[in-house]
Specification:
With 413 residues, the chain is α+β, with helices and mostly antiparallel strands. It is built from 18 helices and ten strands. It has helices spanning 12-18, 22-27, 50-56, 70-77, 87-97, 103-124, 132-148, 157-169, 176-201, 211-217, 228-243, 245-258, 261-267, 271-284, 316-319, 323-326, 336-339, 364-380; strands spanning 34-39, 42-47, 62-63, 130-131, 291-295, 299-301, 304-306, 311-314, 382-384, 406-411. The protein starts with 11 loop residues before the first helix and ends with a strand.
Length: 413
């Protein structure tokens, strides 16, 4: 029997055990960076490389509607989110997000977040111990809520930050983290849907042209306003990814601790180096292991095939650590992005393709802008790093330093 025609074993359980290493382990023996397998009971094809990114994001090949598993929708994205749409509906919904990515929008959010960071640092100096991951989540939540025009932004920040982090932390597990994420999403969708109804009724005033104002008025192809629950989902899809930058803040602190030579250049305020450092943090450290979509038709890639209705996977973690693309992928070297800007089909920590028309994360520019600013502040922060468990387990998705990156002896500027 031809090896390609043998029944495929379902590899869902090994995925849960191996995490980020699951696809790279299987790609290792494939010279063409393609793997045929079975996942969630369906035939699947996993691909990697710039050409594969373009193949994956071709809407003639893959659709998102019905492709994202329910557990991921019920924690990370939300039912009816932009991530679940295709074609005209996807582009129309994305019109809400795109103005937020303009330079003025990114700069405004960064200003609010850095102000919240500076306020927080003054309180850290009064505490014997600070867990940076937790504090970054709170800082980012305070900043994005002020920027988005949410009322009572500071008063609601702590419970909201816990819920936003829980949504991200629980999307890739079947255990208690997942159920915390589900409950958090349900709680915040209901709260924000009520807020949107109050804005529409005039009970609450949203600042003109704020995120809250925009989402309350936004309509898709029929130009009718979104129902309040879907509008709340999309508002969370601004708040949640911003809070998720706390993972990258913890990774940036980890990188500066391991490779302190980068600290001085960041302290100097070298903007180009801060951008390169942000890109290298996103490339080097694990966040999304892979992305997936449902195949529209029978597909063949480098001699391997998957039928219509199967799953096409893009190996994100493996591509960001592919020796053919990065030379020495397990060396943390921001200078690689000073030599040349990142190719959008090579560096894909938040997906590939064009964010204006495709499924690349529309908040990527925000992530980079926030990480640039906060990396400089981290480098300038006067503190100690006590003995702790800084391992980053690849079996946990999404992973982070086990300790959350504890710091002590913070001295306010």
């Amino acid at each position: 029997m031809n090896a390609h025609r043998r029944p495929l074993m379902d590899r869902t359980l090994p995925l849960l055990a191996e995490g980020y290493a699951w696809l790279p382990n299987r790609m290792r023996d494939s010279p063409d960076s393609v793997v045929r397998t079975r996942l969630l009971g369906r035939p699947a094809l996993a691909v990697r490389g710039p050409e594969a990114v373009r193949f994956f994001y071709d809407e003639a090949h893959v659709r998102r509607h019905g492709a994202i598993p329910e557990p991921v929708l019920d924690t990370l994205f939300g039912q009816g989110a932009v991530h679940t749409l295709d074609g005209k509906s996807h582009r129309a919904r994305k019109e809400f997000f795109l103005p937020l990515l303009a330079p003025d929008g990114v700069a405004g959010l960064t200003e609010h977040v850095t102000a919240a960071w500076d306020d927080a640092v003054r309180t850290w100096s009064e505490r014997p111990r600070v867990v940076l991951f937790d504090e970054a989540g709170l800082v980012l939540t305070r900043g994005v809520c002020r920027w988005a025009g949410l009322p009572s932004a500071d008063a609601d920040a702590e419970p909201l930050a816990r819920d936003l982090i829980a949504m991200v932390d629980g999307f890739a597990t079947a255990g208690p983290r997942h159920w915390r994420g589900r409950r958090a999403r349900g709680r915040q969708e209901a709260r924000l849907a009520r807020l949107i109804e109050e804005v529409r009724s005039g009970t609450v005033a949203a600042p003109a042209d704020s995120v809250l104002d925009r989402v309350s008025r936004h309509g898709d192809t029929a130009r009718e306003p979104l129902d309040a629950r879907t509008a709340a989902v999309e508002l969370l899809n601004v708040l949640r990814p911003t809070a998720a930058v706390s993972w990258f803040v913890a990774f940036a602190a980890h990188a500066l601790h391991r490779w302190p030579a980068h600290r001085e250049r960041l302290r100097s305020g070298d903007d180009a180096f801060a951008t390169a450092f942000a890109h290298e943090v996103r490339r080097f450290y694990p966040f999304a292991p892979f992305l997936g979509g449902r195949t529209v038709t029978d597909l063949t890639w480098h001699g391997e095939s998957v039928p219509a209705g199967g799953i096409l996977l893009l190996d994100v973690y493996g591509q960001n650590h592919d020796e053919k693309l990065w030379g020495d992928p397990y060396a943390f070297r921001p200078q690689r992005f000073l030599d040349r800007p990142p190719d959008p089909d090579e560096l894909i920590p938040q997906g590939g393709g064009d964010p204006r028309t495709g499924h690349r994360c529309p908040g990527e520019r925000i992530t980079v802008g926030l990480l640039e600013a906060l990396a400089i502040r981290l480098a300038r922060l006067d503190h100690e790093v006590p003995e702790q468990d800084l391992t980053i387990p690849l079996g946990r998705v999404p992973t982070r330093p086990r300790s959350g990156f504890e710091i002590t002896g913070v001295r306010a500027p």
